[in-house]
């Protein structure tokens, strides 16, 4: 009995030790992030104005703005989301629900897992050779969107598969027992119940894509641009234009990199301001996805 008490006491001490280590590590991470945010806000808060948001870049820091980079980031993320989300979810559903269990499917799953850890610069080099030159898309918004979509596709596929696997097997069996087809099971049971996990994976993937710089520099994104892409909307029928897909572009991370590379301290201050706006842009993107996920959950509960 005494040995059991000593063993329980020792295990509790080990649990407390690991809990303390976890608290310390979490505190270090949170403190580092908080210090970085405070540094950026203090250094760039004076430059975060409406004029800064709607101005074009300039060689004079007091006149420089982020409008082309902000619009470019939004359009590139639009193309990325439109390509990566449906393709990633469809690929995950096929691999989990339709693909036969053989060596080929195992090889595909292994490659998808490995691709999630490939450095982003490799995707940029691949896109430069295939998307920019072989497909002839040039250094355009479409090429950038395809590049980032390929970059986050393994993340979306992996997250979707994990969300599908978290659904109890009994739900599938009950649906099949009622005469449902495999697509009906996927459409009316698996996808609705796994939507929360899928949305979380999509949020993480898009958050990574919005801050990527290396692959976009590789495919030739401009570091200085003084014009906006053509508007996607028109006042004449058919009211939609796709000319902006072939337009040159820049994005916020590249604009920040350009300003940080300059020796003048004033450019470093507006780079800090642009960094704060990039963080806010990412948070807004995540918040939108979370709101959509919450509404989907509410419909499902009804």
Give the rounded overall mean pLDDT: 85
Q: Based on the structure given, which CATH architecture of the largest domain is correct?
A: Orthogonal Bundle
Regions with little confidence, pLDDT below 50 for 5+ residues: none
Note the main sheet.
none
What top-tier CATH class of the largest domain fits best? Mainly Alpha
Using the CA coordinates, give the radius of gyration.
24 Å
Question: CATH topology of the largest domain, anyone?
Answer: MetI-like fold
Given helix and strand content, the structural type is mainly alpha
Tally the beta strands: 0
Give the topology string: H per helix, E per strand.
HHHHHHHHHHHH
- Morphology call: globular
Overview of this structure, please?
The chain is mainly alpha-helical. It folds into two domains: 2-45; 50-301, MetI-like fold (Orthogonal Bundle), CATH 1.10.3720.10. The chain has twelve helices and no strands. The longest helix has 43 residues, at 2-44. It is globular. The termini are far apart. 29% of the residues are buried. The model has no long low-confidence stretch (mean pLDDT 85).
Give the SSE layout:
Blueprint: H1 2-44, H2 50-53, H3 67-98, H4 103-115, H5 120-134, H6 141-165, H7 169-177, H8 182-193, H9 195-210, H10 214-218, H11 252-260, H12 265-301
Question: What would the keywords be for this entry?
Answer:
mainly alpha, MetI-like fold, single chain, 2 domains, 302 residues
Summarize the structure.
The protein is mainly α and 302 residues long. It has twelve helices and no strands. It folds into two domains: 2-45; 50-301, Orthogonal Bundle (MetI-like fold).
């Amino acid at each position: 009995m005494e040995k059991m008490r000593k063993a329980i006491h020792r295990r509790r001490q080990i649990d407390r030790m690991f809990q303390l280590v976890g608290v310390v590590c979490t505190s270090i991470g949170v403190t580092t992030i908080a210090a970085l945010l405070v540094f950026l806000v203090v250094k760039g808060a004076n430059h975060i104005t409406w004029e800064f948001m709607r101005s074009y870049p300039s060689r004079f820091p007091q006149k420089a703005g982020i409008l082309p980079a902000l619009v470019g980031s939004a359009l590139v993320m639009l193309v990325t989301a439109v390509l990566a989300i449906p393709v990633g979810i469809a690929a995950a559903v096929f691999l989990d629900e339709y693909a036969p269990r053989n060596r080929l499917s195992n090889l595909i799953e292994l490659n998808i897992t490995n691709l999630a850890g490939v450095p982003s610069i490799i995707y940029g080099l691949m896109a430069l050779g295939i998307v920019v030159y072989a497909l002839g898309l040039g250094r355009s918004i479409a090429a950038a969107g395809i590049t980032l979509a390929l970059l986050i596709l393994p993340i979306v596929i992996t997250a979707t598969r994990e969300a599908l696997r978290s659904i109890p097997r009994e739900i599938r069996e009950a649906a099949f027992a009622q005469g449902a087809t495999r697509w009906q099971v996927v459409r009316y049971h698996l996808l609705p119940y796994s939507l929360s996990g899928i949305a979380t994976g999509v949020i993480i993937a898009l958050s990574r894509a919005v801050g990527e710089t290396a692959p976009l520099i590789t495919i030739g994104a401009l570091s200085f641009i003084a014009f906006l892409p053509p508007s996607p909307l028109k006042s004449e029928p058919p009211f939609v234009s796709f000319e902006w897909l072939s337009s040159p572009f820049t994005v916020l991370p590249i604009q920040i990199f350009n300003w940080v590379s300059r020796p003048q301290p004033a450019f470093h201050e507006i780079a800090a301001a642009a960094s704060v706006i990039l963080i806010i842009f990412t948070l807004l993107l995540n918040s939108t996805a979370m709101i959509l996920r919450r509404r989907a959950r509410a419909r499902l509960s009804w």
